[in-house]
Amino acid sequence: MSALFRRRARKPEPPPPPIPELPPSLSPEGSQTIYVTGDRQVDTDRIRLLVDSLRDVSSEGDPDELLVVMVDRAVKTVGAERGLLFMADGKGKAPLRVARDDRGRNLPKEASFSTQVVAGVMDGGEPVVLKIEEGGDFDPSQSMLNLSIRAAMCVPLVSGEERLGVLYVDQRASTQTFSRSDLRFFQAFADMLAIVWNNRRVMEERLQAERIAKDLELARSIQADLVPSRPLECGRYTLCGRVDPADETGGDYFDFFETHERKLVMVVGDVSGHGIGAALVMSAARAYLRSFCQTCSSPREILARVNEHLSVDIADGLFMSMFLCVLDLETHAFSYANAGHPGPVLIHADGSTDDLRVTGMALAVDDEAEYGDEGPHTLTAGDTIVLFTDGLNELRKGEDMYGRERAIESMLRHRSGSATDLLEGIFKDALAWTDEESAALYADDLTVAVLRAGS
Known about the structure:
- This protein is an alpha+beta fold.
- Helix content is 35%, strand content 23%.
- It starts with 39 loop residues before the first helix and ends with a strand.
């Protein structure tokens, strides 16, 4: 079979969490044993049954099946006819998740039970044992009378100070009821189930976080491959750039490449916001741009076509600014169009500067937007164009903002060096000003690209 079509190996099931140790008060051996019935043999059997039950539920890999096993073991350990499990939904409610009978069969989710008792226990009430014939603990609802339920127990599932849910069992046989010692044992059983369930939940959350981290790292790696990884030497021109995302992935973008018509394209863009969504928009914009630049050399026409496609692709509220420069390698003349992007700086060989102005609105705001061309302008030896995103201007130190003036001062300070020296100098000055050691602390993605005309 071709290597292109290898069968994907199945991911191994996550290992079950370790069986939690019993508290000393429930240990079947030793002086701290509590005999909840007063009969050593009965209590020892119960503790062993508890340990066996915990082993069963701890070995279950599927979270939904774990809940079913928990209810089945609860029904078996106390000799009940039905078991109902209510799990907190994070919204202040505890809907019925599992309903089982003593034969291991699912019961209808509309199974009758005392909603008042379940709600009371879930809302912070104490565990209760309910016996109709005694009348002191329980005022039965009509639904339970209709079901001829003679006894019931209801206990909370608690982890720390959090109530995870409620476990409820009942019995219709008039010859069997639940005692206070049954309730103490049932609560101990529920406490251990809560530990197992919480351990499993924590493990699932950790695994999910690890999967997300791996996915984000892969996305960042892919995105890094979409921007030039090294400077480009093309005739007398040198182009280089650097992008540092605020998150694992970002919406900033720069690119430079030569077309088959001997044109040199340089572009920088910025998607609103940052993160994985912005990165996807950036990737789409890059694909459109590279495609259209092979058949068209007019910056305004290229931006108009990119805008038309992005307006269809991305959701309302998202947009992208972009500056696009096209340089003719034969005539050394360049034209540009600017879709709502911070104006790049043209630094002349004598140190004077010009701002390359905005010629249209940001992309994906209006699918019929039009963009103007500026140029052609001629680049002479020693001229430099510095493109950047607003992450540079908007770097902050307390309430102070780095700003365009400081950025241009930095550019002029390092203009006598090579294109790469200028690029690194801009980043170094910005980081020194903010007192930050890493781009990971930026509030926004930060991108700078440089085009230098040599002699």
